Amino acid sequence: MKRLPFSPWHLVLAPLGLLFALPLVWLLVSSVMSNAEINRFPPALIPSGLKLDGYRFVLGNALFPRWFLNSFIVSAVAVTANLVLGSLGGYAFARMRFAGSKVLLGLMLATMVIPFQLTMIPTFLVMKQLGLIDTLGALIIPSLVTPFSVFLFRQFFVSLPRELEEAAWLDGCGRLRILVSVVLPLAKPALSTVAVLTFLSTWNDLTWPLIAINHDTNYTLQLGLTTFQGQHHTQWAAVMAGNVITVLPVLLGFLLAQKAFIRSLASSGLKG
Amino acid sequence: MASVVGTFTVDPRARRAAKRRTRNEGATAWAFVSPSVLIILGLSVVPVLWSLLLSFQSNDLVSPSEWVGLANYKALAADPAFGAAVEHTLIYTALYVPLSVVGGLAIALMLDRRIRFIGLYRTLVFVPFVVSAAAQGVLFSFVLDPEFGAANSLLHKLGLPAQGFFSDPGQALYLLVGISLWSGTGFCVIVYLAGLQGVPAELVEAARIDGAGRIGVLRHVVLPTLAPVTIFLVLFQTIIALQVFDLVFVTTKGGPLGSTTVIVYFIWEKAFKTFTAGYSAAAAYALAVALLVIGLTLQFYRRRAAR
After folding, report:
1. For residue A46, what is the nearest residue in chain B, using CA coordinates?
2. Residues B39, B81: one domain?
3. I need a surface site. Which of A32, B196, B201, B268 has the fewest CB within 10 A?
């Protein structure tokens, strides 16, 4: 590749990039400070060395590992379920003729405009009736499949040429077999978009866990971090270490699959 | 069976059999969609109607509810706390939406060029978007901590007076706007960058030949092409802003002195703190209707802009 000439735009873009990066850099830096350094006034801006006290406290005494596991379980089940149920539903709406399919699809689409605040109290009451309040089940069930996942798969499947499926269909393959071995291998963009958006929204959610969970052993990371800050607001190094642990999976996922993240989010904007 | 993938030699019997299967696959289709239908409609349509019912009742989430007619809505209209929540939400929205959309456009235009490190710049601008509101709130509670925070430390070094930040009722709401801009502008940038790929190069070229300068090309070619994207972003950001909650909950809990109580915080408080679920449902309905009206209006403009 040809070396690009120096552009004056760097003089604007470098400070701008720094501005966006700075809070996260500060998050990392303060998580390896000692409490003595932080509690000084004015606090140190550059740590004297790498202190892992915060991490030791968070991983030793606190419930962080448990919360991490809870968040992981909820997100993993939600992502898997959205891929399975979303592609099944999306495929039926895209390719199969059945009574009521148009009405049903319209209804599903219409539910996308319902704000969460409108459904949260009744959903809480339903979960209470089912005896699921204060369990991970209450977090998992509402996130098993979203209308967005179904609709995204449907749109993608509609755009695929029918010929490949028809050949398999004439060979006597069932619909499930066609979906799994013909359609889904072609649907990587749709699969990754649904996976990315589902993971982001379940991992980062705070409102619903706040409503549905009571005991600290059942907290997710977001809820745990929030409560932990309230209880240990003088131990900022530990709070920041916990914060790093909360943010890290999303950040790593983003950096490793940046293209998929950006394409997913940009496409949600351009088509949505 | 005589069919081979990729050729047209299909046994007519197989074709007829396949046709018959197409007609009789209603049961399979229902098996495919029923889990989604059950979960999505069950946890949306049913709760929406239930909420409507609740909004006409007095309900504490435990004992049987009592029918009160429009009393909740009347009380809501007269409640100064709800009025204040609406006002705070509108201030937050009126600042966040234009600043994030215009800022996003400006940054996208700067990033839409082939220079070194451009990928890095894009990553840096976008990365705060994936950070959860809870993590943002905890991080900025620390940075803006009046005693131990880096912000006051920096002000001290510059010889400026220390600030109260989240403990100052005159600052808290604006700080929330600032934090949301830090994390939310990147989304607008990404969507605009994708939109800029759709600006036809021939059109830009033609405008240049006709003597249009950079500003002229921007005004007469780029911005009109981006109009549908802009309307989408205004709609999306408005809906997000009117529903702001997580960040408020983590940083200020509506304080100090109620200066950051936004609508959704009000709704949450009424339902799960003071256990007046009927009242909360009425407030949620008021918000939902407002969102719907805004959504339909902007959708209308978007259709028009797309033509």
Report:
1. B150
2. no
3. B201
